[in-house]
Amino acid sequence: MTYSSGAHAIRGCIAHCLHDPGEGDDPNALEVYEDGLMIIERGHVVRVGPAEDLLPTLGDNIPVEDQSGRLIVPGFIDTHIHYAQTDMIASYGEQLLTWLERYTFPTEGRFADRAVADETAAFFVEELLRNGTTSALVLGTVHPESVDAVFEQAQARGLRMAAGKVLMDRNAPDYLLDTPDTGYRESLELIERWHGVDRLSYAITPRFAPSSSDAQLARAGELARRYPDTYIHSHLAENRDEVAWVAELFPWSRSYLDVYDHFGLLRERSVYGHSIYLDAADRRRMAETGAVAVFCPTSNLFLGSGLFDYEQTRRDGVMTSLATDVGGGTSFSMLRTAAEAYKVSQLTGSALSSARMLYLATLAGAEALDVADRVGSFREGREADFVVLDPQATPLMARRNARAESAADTLFALFILGDDRSVHSTWVQGVCQHQRNNMGQHRSAGAVVDGDRRQNLSATCC
Ligand code: GUN
Ligand code: ZN
User: Fold this and answer.
1) Closest residue (by CA) to atom 11 of ligand 1?
2) For position 59, what pLDDT does the model report?
3) Model confidence at 440: pLDDT above 70
4) Domain count across the chain
5) From the CA of 96, how far away is ligand 2's center (Å)?
6) Domain boundary at 317, 332, 347, which?
């Protein structure tokens, strides 16, 4: 096999999911090459396999990035995150509805100023990369320019991103309201400007049922029919008071989900954050329509919303993905988010294996966003988005990793203990877009130990 002149390769412990390991933790779902090589051409994966088999096929002029001792996994996919809430992460003391009023709405009001949007979007995209996230489904604010700002930043760094202007025409401060008509028109203009450009897609984004009138939800449904390959992105059944409020606002509805169903907002590529308080009929309807439920464990715990039952949701055939939900969520890290998913799942009756956590952080997101033919694994032809993870990022992690029994065990400890410190570098379409700097240093017995040189490994990317 011959490779083109721009081809390059990366060597390390390569792990990716081929499909959902499921409750039985199917051993064939996780593919691991302990000393693996991935060959990349024009930003895409051409081959993955054992280094000893593939190195001889390379010839002399194909550079190999040596990351031996580190783990190489697909770039993380965050399927529900609010970029405009970056600055209000970790806001004290409230549950959903009062948290929105006290912190969220005033923060989002600042995005009427394009300069605030630009500056926050730049920080946000950098923070995604610092945490190994290479694809995301993002909410902007009601201001259409907020979406221009985040798309521009994502485009500049090559990220795969879907985003949308929030639709909200009631039950919020006046300075954050649009109308059914302006919301429709502004969304349509954003779709025409951004949908399908590079790796960007549009998400029609009614904030949640209480903040849209019937007329606005109907127009959102109209837009969703007119552009069937856009996403629909909203919140669903997150908090008990919210669910009761929806029952009051839409007295004819059978359930919260039924409101979205009524307005034509359930279809493939419709993605619903939280989805905690659903009954069996709701879950059946989600499964039938191909709608996605998003598990947001750090947010659900932080806002005291409740425990999402991942196993039950899956068992009922609902496609389920994982997300940070910053700023209700408390971390940009999908490693930490998966660790919280593990703990919540312990409380709902199951223990997620490292393969299942890796699936949730990568391929599940790709499937939820209907882009598993592009990202989420290292199958041949996929876009080469990947993260190099350092299992020895801190003294404790190094100590735990020294006792690891297998790559799966290393991965498990990485998920449970890891965070942005564990991300050595983040690569987007084969290009390094972030490399840990001396923030990766840590102190040990009074001395500064360089996390990179300590392992005497080359770190030649970027
Ligand atoms: N429901 C409506 N808006 C929001 C929001 O901004 N965050 C969360 N977590 N839930 C919501
Ligand atoms: Zn949210």
Assistant:
1) 235
2) 86
3) no
4) 2
5) 10
6) 332
